């Protein structure tokens, strides 16, 4: 395919996706593909969340090869190698490094939120690091760009009030990961997003609509501003500062209401109300 023809396809997809997804994400990823058309043999992205990778897949169509790796089997964030043609990529091609947080587990505890806060406020971009994982017994690890190994090991010495030491490990020394979700159910009057948000947060429907229009709600990692949208099975709904749920089943009650069975991941500081 000629370069001009391929570029035209990318531009048309970009225009369409701007109305569907985050415009800044669409523009950034479209720019990466356009750069690849004219210059590079391949591009290695920073860590992308599932929503960003969905955008990239829709932009790329069948015209580019995409391979992704986030450090372990059940990754959420991952780096992607984009090529014009398919070529198998070894794990080290993704330049993903594994770090363990060493601290005195006998006298201290640290949390996912504390680790994320330190990483996010360390002066690097959120896209520079990937998932934060735990074995549920006090050990914590995270993934980041290989090039930042010295920074993490030489600059981060405290998480919360706990003194820590960051150690780089071989990528195959990943913890047996424990998913800290809970299972719960919620009765809602409607499957509309505002009704679900109000039920999860124990607030009024109008307040739920305010959270949505203020950009505090994401569905499947995309910010959602339409409170009329209907949720469905397997949707992941995030509420800023509170946590997130994944809908695993929807049934109806005898009174015509809906029962949502969910997996629930809660913020340590502000919690989604449990039923």
Task: Compose a concise summary of this entry.
The chain contains seven helices and 15 strands. By secondary structure, the protein is α+β, with helices and mostly antiparallel strands. Keywords: RNA-binding.
Characterise the protein shown here.
Residues 92-172 form the Ribosome-associated protein quality control protein P2 RNA-binding domain. GO terms for molecular function: RNA binding. Keywords: RNA-binding. This is Photosystem II S4 domain-containing protein. InterPro entries: Nucleotide-bd_a/b_plait_sf, RqcP2_RBD. There is one protein chain. The protein is of the alpha+beta class and 275 residues long. It folds into 3 domains: 1-93, Ribosomal Protein S8, Chain: A, domain 1 (2-Layer Sandwich); 95-173, Alpha-Beta Plaits (2-Layer Sandwich), CATH 3.30.70.330; 182-270, RNA-binding S4 domain (Structural Genomics Hypothetical 15.5 Kd Protein In mrcA-pckA Intergenic Region, Chain A, Roll). The protein contains 7 helices and 15 strands. It has helices at residues 3-18, 23-38, 50-60, 112-120, 149-155, 193-201, 205-213; strands at 42-44, 65-69, 79-83, 96-102, 129-134, 140-145, 158-159, 162-163, 165-169, 182-188, 217-219, 222-223, 236-239, 243-252, 258-266. A 6-stranded antiparallel beta sheet has the order 10-15-14-13-11-12. A 4-stranded antiparallel beta sheet has the order 5-6-4-9, with helices on one face. A 3-stranded antiparallel beta sheet has the order 1-3-2, with helices on one face. It is flat and about 60 Å long. The N and C termini lie far apart (56 Å). The mean pLDDT is 92.
């Amino acid at each position: 395919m000629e370069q001009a023809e391929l570029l035209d396809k990318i531009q048309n997809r970009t225009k369409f996706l701007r109305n569907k997804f985050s415009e800044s994400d669409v523009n950034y990823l479209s720019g990466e593909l356009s750069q690849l058309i004219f210059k590079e043999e391949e591009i290695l992205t920073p860590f992308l969340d599932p929503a960003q990778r969905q955008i990239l897949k829709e932009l790329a169509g069948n015209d580019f090869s995409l391979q992704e790796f986030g450090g372990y089997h059940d990754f959420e964030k991952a780096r992607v190698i984009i090529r014009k043609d398919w070529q198998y990529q070894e794990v080290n091609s993704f330049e993903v490094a594994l770090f363990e947080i060493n601290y005195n587990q006998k006298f201290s505890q640290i949390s996912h939120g504390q680790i994320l806060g330190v990483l996010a406020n360390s002066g690097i971009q959120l896209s520079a690091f990937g998932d934060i994982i735990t074995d549920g017994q006090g050990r914590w690890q995270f993934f980041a760009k290989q090039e930042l190994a010295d920074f993490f090991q030489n600059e981060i010495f405290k998480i919360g009030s706990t003194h820590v030491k960051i150690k780089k490990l071989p990528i195959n020394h990943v913890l047996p990961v424990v998913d800290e979700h809970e299972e719960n159910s919620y009765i809602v009057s409607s499957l509309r997003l505002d009704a679900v948000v109000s039920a999860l947060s124990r607030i009024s429907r109008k307040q739920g609509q305010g959270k949505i229009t203020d950009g505090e709600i994401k569905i499947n990692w995309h910010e959602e501003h339409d409170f009329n949208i209907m949720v469905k099975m397997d949707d992941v709904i995030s509420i800023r500062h509170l946590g997130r749920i994944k809908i695993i089943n929807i049934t109806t009650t005898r009174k015509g209401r809906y029962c949502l069975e969910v997996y629930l991941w809660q913020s340590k500081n502000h919690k989604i109300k449990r039923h």
